[in-house]
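$ run holo --ligand "iron/sulfur cluster" --emit tokens
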Amino acid sequence: MRVTFPHMGNLWLGLKTALQELGHEVIVPPKPSKRTLTLGSQRSPEFACLPLKINLGCFLEALEAGADTIIMAGGVGPCRFGYYGAVQKRILEDLGYNVRFIIFDPPQGRWREFLNDLRRVGNGKPLYKIFSALLFGIRKLEIMDYLEKIGHKIKAREVNKGETTHILEKTLHKLDDASSYREIRRIRKEALEELLSVQRKKIDPLRVAITGEIFVVLEPFVNMDVENELGKMDVEVERALYITDWVKEHLIPSIQGIRKHHLLEKMSKPYLGHFVGGDGQLSVASAVIYAKRKFHGMVHLMPFTCMPEIIAQSILPRVSKDLSFPVLTLVFDEHTGKAGVLTRLEAFVDLLQRRRVVEVH
Ligand code: SF4
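-- output --
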């Protein structure tokens, strides 16, 4: 099998590692680009949400590079994600591709089906080897998540803008080449030392949370690199979700995942009492959590026509008013331009700075 998968932030690192450990030939889809977006948008239903269009474009580029099997997560619940696999398979078949799809639905008690799906990608390996390959991939992602969290604090203060991003990109590629736990521990240690030696200004930056639909939050091409743009404005960013959080909540049950789920339910409850699909509940809960943590504001990212985030978007003004917590919602589709996003971010940061001055006096 020549295997490919959707591109979403650093996800490729974990999937490539796990699939190579299982002996597959892996075709990593190129980073999403204008071409990816154009390919996907031209062949998708107009009102499909942006992640479907980008993923379809990624698949087309990976198929051009020789992939014959697509692995992707499925979903259950009130949003369209559960139909993605079937819709994309149908579109590719209509375009004349003969491609094999393996769709992982979150287990949610259906462990037998989940284990069967795992065996389908296992390349004949026993289950313990499949889990060990997955855990190695996840461990690499955990290290990147950890370093990125530290990187967000440094980016706001760094003297030479872009230095932290460069260290993180270099580390990502070193982790990609690493083949043992010993090696990745060494890479983590070295990257941490490098990050901590970055020359920093002594400032007290604005702190802004980033939340919203997972694909838009994690994929810099889609969100116009909002984290780095805020970093350039000397703003410290904290992201409400990371790729390993999603894995621990949805694919591999963990105490940490269960705790996070309960926290989100509790925090969103006064405004939204039930799951609405995707990350809608997370977006509402994030506003409450970050307001209580005295952040200066929150940026809410969503794809155009995303059902769970439309619900969150309609609730957030009330949360914002009740807690006196500024929230900026940015909606992305194939027509979004970077200049417009930057202008809105600059205006938001300006507003937060003025609020801070008024609060101090
Ligand atoms: S969460 Fe939103 S963007 Fe993601 S699949 Fe569901 S509707 Fe589409």
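-- notes --
Residues 127-155 form the longest helix (29 residues).
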